[in-house]
Amino acid sequence: MSTDLMPNRYRPGEVELPRREAALIARRDNVLGSSYRLQYRKPVHFVRGEGMWLYDPDGRAYLDFYNNVPSLGHCHREVNAAMAEQAGRISANTRYLEPKLIDYAERLVETFPVEIDHVVFTCTGSESNDLALRIARLDSGNEGVIVSAYAYHGTSAAVAAVSPNLGDAVKLSPNVRMVSLPGPQGVPEAQAPDYFEAQVRAAIFDLNRRGIGVAALLIDSIFSSDGVWIDPPGFIAGGVAAVREAGGLFIADEVQPGFGRTGVHMWGFERHNVVPDLVTLGKPMGNGFPIGAVVGRSAPMDKFGTTARYSNTFAGNTMGIATADAVLTILQRDRIPDNALAMGRRLRAGLEDIAQRHDAIRAIRNAGLFFGIDMGLETAPPAQRQAQALDVVNTMRDDGVLISTTGANEDTLKVRPPLVCQAEHVDLFLASLECALARLAG
Amino acid sequence: MSTDLMPNRYRPGEVELPRREAALIARRDNVLGSSYRLQYRKPVHFVRGEGMWLYDPDGRAYLDFYNNVPSLGHCHREVNAAMAEQAGRISANTRYLEPKLIDYAERLVETFPVEIDHVVFTCTGSESNDLALRIARLDSGNEGVIVSAYAYHGTSAAVAAVSPNLGDAVKLSPNVRMVSLPGPQGVPEAQAPDYFEAQVRAAIFDLNRRGIGVAALLIDSIFSSDGVWIDPPGFIAGGVAAVREAGGLFIADEVQPGFGRTGVHMWGFERHNVVPDLVTLGKPMGNGFPIGAVVGRSAPMDKFGTTARYSNTFAGNTMGIATADAVLTILQRDRIPDNALAMGRRLRAGLEDIAQRHDAIRAIRNAGLFFGIDMGLETAPPAQRQAQALDVVNTMRDDGVLISTTGANEDTLKVRPPLVCQAEHVDLFLASLECALARLAG
Questions:
Q1: CA distance, residue A102 to nearest chain B CA (Å)
Q2: Less Cβ crowding at N or C end of chain A, within 10 Å?
Q3: Which residues of chain A does B45 touch, with a Cβ-Cβ cutoff of 8 Å?
Q4: pLDDT tens column, A5-20
Q5: A69 assigned to some structural domain
Q6: A317: chain B residues, CB-CB within 8 Å
Q7: Burial code of B47-58, b = ≥16 C-beta within 10 A, e = fewer?
């Protein structure tokens, strides 16, 4: 595991900055303190966004192949118009009768398998995962949570405590167990389902033996922070069944894969042909407006709702609902998941072509428009592979293309453009990547 | 303590509803499930908001004396214009350099005593309290949290576990201790500081004896969910000092009292002449846009920030910052806290006048425009007092004026109008209250 938890960042003194940026950073550090990090060796500063593009104060355009919140593109006019229209009319809370809240809830639930028929709104993906854990713990009567080895599920105390990705400074819960994934362990695909199930069963055994029991298997179906390990489809099914046998729930964290990113499917768990008990939503749900949700089966959600009051001031207010409703309308009307699939295929083909010419690409994995591209030779030391990945990311940033890194060693390029990207954007990205690789080799 | 955690709510079958509302509620229950409650015996449904007023589908106007999120009034044009303008330009995240983020952070911090100079943004008050607890626990190395007897601090797992207000179904943390407040215990004001300090010291003693230690005293300076117990100013100071002696932090939950509600002061803790270590913000910060913050002293915040990465996707995005910046500008430019003080005085004088004619008013407490009005005779059984409060609230709702109840017995009227209310609104409210009291007596 990388000791630097965000290696792709600005470090004072590493690069020379224009006076304007240096002065801003000094003021920023003074008032925001050390919790905040700036991305890239040389920080970026944008004053305008439109679709796939971000513009700096000098008018230079950057192609965004990284931000997965504005899935419909930056500053989407139709979404913003829906938000502004609603803000000017009324933004009622959920304790008042509001037909739009009900309409949207019904539309959202319809995008799920029939077993999943309830929704509770939140404001962020972290709040969604936090609430899902509360529901699973109340429903099961158990406390244990099983996650992947390098999982990240959010920022609240309860969720950070089951997020090993946050590193040693954030104490893990005594009730969490991490399971290895078959992919990063080099397990052949044919054995992946058995391997994963065995890992989960071992975790359940240990949790039961200590009287903790298992409340939930909480996973993101593309394992994004582990480095994007998505294959083979269905490999999680045995682990899911084992958790259910033990009285726990399966929570699918769809904050990153959800809303069409994996292509064809609206939800990432559909690739694995499993139906979760609870599903957590966030990031792209409002294309930037803070809104999330827990969607799930009625039994655990009603058991929670009838006893533990859940009231979230902003969540489900009409302004957020109108915004999310516009996003869902556009996703469906414009067949955005189909575009994610088609552009994902084009991007994958281009990457495979480049990989033939550049040894630095070790492996390519993707589901739709979420890519992990491993950098560096298998035989190279981890630090060297990470340095190569960071060099590529920052060379591309200087070239006006935005991506970053992920994975346990942070040597995997993380590529997840807005879902509205077109062939021309894919080709620009590929050209920039090939230039960066050529410079790396030179 | 009331066994019904939200007594002022709709119960199926209690009142006859028009077919339109009945059908909506059936659909709502079907998809949202049991976590959601509708306020008032007969639910309200609004289609338009403007300033102090909400309008139902038949065009009937309701005077809002309850909602403390839209402090500047419903659908504020200037705030909404700032939000829409920014949404159309760019909404960058905090890992990009953004001068507006820094400008607003500096302006916000300037409204606090000089010791408080750092800010971290969140999306909700719950996230603010959750993060503040994480900071306090990391800084102190302790786990214990001291709260008031009937405190409510939010919805995340960690915060719900220190919110006794949520009732028996939500398990309290083994590390939380509740302290009684002098007011509800009938302690004379002169003895209130000593009483509170003794309560806090006893909690510290118990936490230390069990090896838990004290991480924080977490209180809302007007104790809103305990029933609005605000006097005498300064009564919390000895308790705050005791917690600091024991190595814990003082966290002021300003989600309800903050941003000028208490009149004159911007922050509720200023009434008590104490300077917190951490301050948590939420509700009115964006006049309805989901934004919150933890503001505090640099030592604990930097200790947390340098070790535990805190990254909150939506928090501090430029759209939220532009909205909050407009709110702060208007609060300061239009001297909104002064208006809260003046209108609070007018409302208090009117209530005292009414109380002379109506025994049903047992006590009146307020700080600025946050009022608690106890209903029912001291000698009446608690259930009867609660019924009187609910009758008044629902009679006023039918009369087109919105308030609700609070306190351990839910027999205290909770009155907290938007801070822009004017004399005419105060007088309308008073007239409606007097009518409701007359009907109660009749």
A1: 6
A2: C
A3: 96-98
A4: 789 999 988 999 988 8
A5: no
A6: 288, 290
A7: bbbbbbbbbbee
Domain that holds residue B377: 19-41+336-413+422-441
Whether the CA torsion B365, B370, B375, B379 is positive or negative: it is negative
pLDDT per position as a tens digit, B382-419: 999 999 999 999 999 999 999 999 999 999 999 999 99
pTM more than 0.90: yes
Is B47–A102 a contact, with Cβ atoms under 8 angstroms apart? Answer: no
Asked if the structure places residue B65 within a domain, the reply is no
Interface-testing mutation among A95, A98, A175, with chain B (most B C-beta atoms within 10 A): A95
Quick one: closest CA in B to A133, which residue? B157
Hey, of A29, A35, A69, which one would you mutate to test binding to chain B, going by the most B CBs within 10 A of its CB? A35
pLDDT in tens, A345-380: 999 999 999 999 999 999 999 999 999 999 999 999
How far is residue A8's CA from residue A14's CA, in Å, rounded to a whole number?
Answer: 12
Separation CA A251–CA B420 (nearest Å): 44
Domain end call among A282, A310, A333: A333
* A124 interaction partners in chain B (CB closer than 8 Å): 123-124, 127, 312-315
Number of domains chain B contains:
2
Round to whole Å and give the CA distance between B237 and B77. Answer: 40
What gap in Å lies between CA B26 and CA B370, rounded to an integer?
35
State the pairing for strand pair B61-64/B401-402: parallel
Please state the separation of Cα A157 from the chain's center in Å. Answer: 19
B33, B46, B283 member nearest A313 (Cβ): B283
